[in-house]
Amino acid sequence: DYTTAIKLDPKHFKAYYNRAFCFDKLGKFSQAEEDYKIALEFQPDNVHVLHHLGSLIEKSGTQRLDEALSFFERVLQLDQSYAPSYNGRGLVWDKMQKFDAALKDFPKAISLDPVSYTHLTLPTIYSVQISVVAGSLKK
Fold it and tell me: How far apart (Å, rounded) are the C-alpha atoms in residues 3 and 129?
């Protein structure tokens, strides 16, 4: 149990990271965010923690999109081949209605990891393109 591991070793990075992941999957988002941030204190350049924080914040709505974006951008500064963060950043751009930026990030995610992202990202790309066309028709 990760909580027990943390009690035994309060500086156990993997216990915080894994417990945060579990909290996230259980829908306990504030607890997940807290544990991810503690894990980040131990490994501030860990792309997995940074990415999961970005994803967690992106899923929480539109109030903190700039913060989510900053996590994804930090990941991509550290590792330009990290496909999940291109996808995550594309989702943020889409929510911000910055469709040109989204349409750059989604194909990049697919090119880096076609097996994981083609089926997830193509419908979003089409949705973004529809939004762009619909917006131009309103003008």
Answer: 45
88-95's contacts with Cβ under 8 Å and 24+ in sequence apart are: 88/51, 88/54, 88/55, 88/58, 89/54, 90/121, 90/124, 91/58, 91/124, 92/54, 92/58, 92/65, 92/68, 93/69, 94/124, 94/127, 94/128, 94/131, 95/58, 95/62, 95/65
Q: Is 104:94 a contact under the CB 8 Å cutoff?
A: no
Q: What is the pLDDT of residue 118?
A: 65
45 Cβ contact partners less than 8 Å away, ≥ 6 residues apart? 78
114 vs 8, higher pLDDT: 8
Instruction: Tell me the three state secondary structure of residue 60.
Output: coil
Distance CA 97, CA 107 (A): 17
Residue from 70, 66, 9, 17 nearest 40 by CA:
17
Report the alpha-carbon distance of residue 108 to residue 79 in Å, rounded: 13
**pTM for the model:** 0.87
